[in-house]
Design brief:
The chain is an alpha+beta fold. It is built from 13 helices and 5 strands. It folds into 2 domains: about 70 residues, no CATH class; about 200 residues, Cytochrome Bc1 Complex, Chain A, domain 1, CATH 3.30.830.10. Helices cover about 50% and strands about 15% of the residues. A 5-stranded mixed β-sheet has the order 1-5-2-4-3. Strand 3 and strand 4 form a beta hairpin. Helix 6 packs antiparallel against helix 7. The longest helix has 16 residues.
């Protein structure tokens, strides 16, 4: 899916790399990279749990003295995404009982003020068992066992979309229903109490996640690495509560417009996949084939 949305940009590459690239990396290149990047000036240390801040700082300062003066940061590892490439399609043929399909588009950056509205939109559309896609596709029609939305935020861009896993005969209908629900939200057709339920669900999940020490640690580290403000839980809850239904609808219209959709899929036949995608964004399969 990342390759379909971001193309040849580094954001579209697999994090683990490819066999050809990995096999071509020699000892000298690996050593040079390690010496450049694995330096105290590039390291972020995050910790949570039964510890004392001053004791941890003392340990880190001791380790730093052994290494020597911390150099400046290494070179930027990837160029920023100035403009997203044109939407595209990716498909992998595999003998599976179901089709597994993602449809989505570029999202917003981690520092974007609209990130709270994006989180509410994600919760409302497909973030829980009470969300629109889950209710309309799985509960009401029984067309798919698994359906959900996803939203990732990077330093300069993001990824937003939905996933559905379903039998071949249901694929086109599932994508069409999902597209209809997104369009209804984008047009301002939120139901009574729908936005508030999504907000409460989102705040509840955040609070529950803070019961994990490792999640607390990761939250601190991500804030430092991405150079974003570390907000208190109360502030986050207040920002979520401040999101208006109009803001959610507007963002759905901006980010999830059919003409911005890319699609990726795995399944037994590409023709059925492309026919299903064409139901929600007619130009995409033809453009990708060209």
């Amino acid at each position: 899916m990342s390759e379909a949305v971001f193309g040849d940009h580094p954001l579209g590459r697999p994090v683990i790399g490819t066999a050809d690239v990995i096999s071509s990396v020699g000892r000298r290149a690996l050593t040079s990279y390690h010496q450049t990047m694995y330096q105290a000036g590039n390291v972020v240390v995050a910790a949570a749990g039964n510890l004392k801040h001053d004791d941890l700082v003392a340990l880190l300062e001791k380790a730093e003295r052994k290494q020597g003066k911390a150099p400046g940061k290494g070179p930027r590892l990837r160029s920023p995404l100035v403009r997203a490439p044109r939407p595209s399609v990716r498909f992998q043929r595999k003998r599976t009982e179901q089709y597994h399909v993602c449809v989505g588009a570029p999202g917003i950056a981690r520092s974007d003020r609209r990130r709270f509205a994006a989180s509410v939109l994600d919760a409302l559309l497909g973030g829980s068992a009470s969300s629109r896609l889950f209710q309309e596709i799985r509960e009401k029609r029984g067309m798919a066992y698994s359906v959900y939305t996803f939203a990732s935020q990077y330093t300069d861009s993001g990824l937003i979309g939905f996933y559905v896993g379903t039998r071949p005969e249901n694929l086109a209908d599932c994508l069409e229903i999902a597209n209809e629900q997104i369009a209804e939200v984008a047009e301002g057709g939120l139901r009574n109490g729908e936005s508030e339920r999504a907000k409460e669900n989102l705040k509840g999940r955040i609070l529950l996640s803070m019961e994990s020490t490792s999640n607390r640690m990761s939250r601190l580290g991500k804030s430092l690495i991405s150079d974003t403000e570390l907000l208190s839980i109360d502030r986050i809850a207040a920002e979520i509560d401040a999101v208006t239904p109009e803001a959610v609808s507007e963002l759905a219209g901006v980010l999830l417009a059919p003409e911005k959709f890319s699609a990726s899929g795995i399944g037994p036949g590409e023709e059925r996949f492309r026919d299903a995608v064409q139901r929600i964004t007619p130009e995409l399969p033809a453009r990708a084939a060209a």
